[in-house]
Amino acid sequence: MRNYSQQTTNRSDERDVQITDIKACVVEGNFEWNLIKVETDAGEYGIGESYRGGGVPELVEYTKRFLVGENPLDVERLVRYIFQEMSGHGGTTGKVVTAASGIETALWDVAGKILGLPVYQLLGSKYRDEVRMYCDCHAGEAYAVEDGATAYAEAEAYSPEAYAAEARRVVDMGFSALKFDLDLAADNENDPYNGRLTNRAIAEKREIVAAVRDEIGYDIDLAFDCHWDYSVESAKRLARELEEFDLMWLEDLIPPENMSAQIEVTRSTNTPVATGENRFRVFELSELLYEHGVDIITPDPTTVGGLAETMRVADRAEENYIPLSPHNVCSPVGTMACVHLGAAVPNFDLLEFHALEVDWWDDLLVRDEPLIQDGVIEVPERPGLGIELDEAVVEEHLLEGTTGF
Ligand SMILES: [Mg+2]
């Protein structure tokens, strides 16, 4: 087996540093945010975030047996080390890649602090001073997973008027781009399993999209997410029916596994089609890009393998003249990691914000001002990710029964 542990010894003293510990903690926001801390003997530590949900703290704990003692400045080598060392239990795809994503980001943070450079500079370039955000909005209650099933609000909460009112509220907050869910409980009334949309269901979605466009006009970018719900023919019909509304994109129309089905849907419509958030590593996204099976690629850096892996996705997207818009349901930690990516990627479009209902979202960082102002986040100039966690706020919102760093 290839050995990715440190083989070289020739390095200047100030960069001859070691990882001393790696920790994870879970903060309960609108999702279970997995925060990662990498400690070093250089007097600096790094913070990262892995995609939400269970299993990450256990996998992070496992990596300590081979990462402690390694040089945190070798970010890319250490991620390969994780993939290789854990290849039999998910290093090629899945939760190990998710855990590695947060460790990777924490390594960039500490590397930046040690070297005195912001993460975007370590990634290669600065193309922009601020990153435009789009706000994930909800007409009814926000998406929630309760007792294993998706919880929906009452049907009237999803009226076209409710969508339009929420769109107005969020535009008035300063956002220039919005996204709503377009998969409705009513889609399942005919049959919950076959992915077929009735004419009535498509007509209802048209009414929702029309109501939002009537309210906010066409100068605001507007996307809708369908959460992998439909059959190919229903996806194509829906995308075609919405063409006149000039959407920013329609997201995740069909289930994520079948590339040729995705290519078929994307090529069938003038409505831009986006997907990518539940794919792991560049290998699971390359075909979509080279086959033009997607108009906007939406990997999640906290899932796909970290910032450098997302850069590799962005490179392949750039080769095919496709913009990249990361999926993001993170705390401010993962969000700020994506902001550095946004600065460093030429074909970066805009970044998701998915925590409108968490009124203490900003409090997780020690800052005087909100992170998002006028719908953008300024790219920080401080070393690393340029953030400082407020440990007291972390403690206050820890997942019940868990401990902090
Ligand atoms: Mg989505």
TrEMBL record:
<dbReference type="InterPro" id="IPR036849">
    <property type="entry name" value="Enolase-like_C_sf"/>
</dbReference>
<dbReference type="GO" id="GO:0016829">
    <property type="term" value="F:lyase activity"/>
</dbReference>
<dbReference type="InterPro" id="IPR013341">
    <property type="entry name" value="Mandelate_racemase_N_dom"/>
</dbReference>
<dbReference type="InterPro" id="IPR029017">
    <property type="entry name" value="Enolase-like_N"/>
</dbReference>
<dbReference type="Pfam" id="PF02746">
    <property type="entry name" value="MR_MLE_N"/>
</dbReference>
<dbReference type="InterPro" id="IPR034593">
    <property type="entry name" value="DgoD-like"/>
</dbReference>
<keyword id="KW-0456">Lyase</keyword>
<dbReference type="InterPro" id="IPR013342">
    <property type="entry name" value="Mandelate_racemase_C"/>
</dbReference>
<protein>
    <submittedName>
        <fullName>Mandelate racemase/muconate lactonizing enzyme family protein</fullName>
    </submittedName>
</protein>
<dbReference type="InterPro" id="IPR029065">
    <property type="entry name" value="Enolase_C-like"/>
</dbReference>
<dbReference type="Pfam" id="PF13378">
    <property type="entry name" value="MR_MLE_C"/>
</dbReference>
<feature type="domain" description="Mandelate racemase/muconate lactonizing enzyme C-terminal">
    <location>
        <begin position="160"/>
        <end position="272"/>
    </location>
</feature>
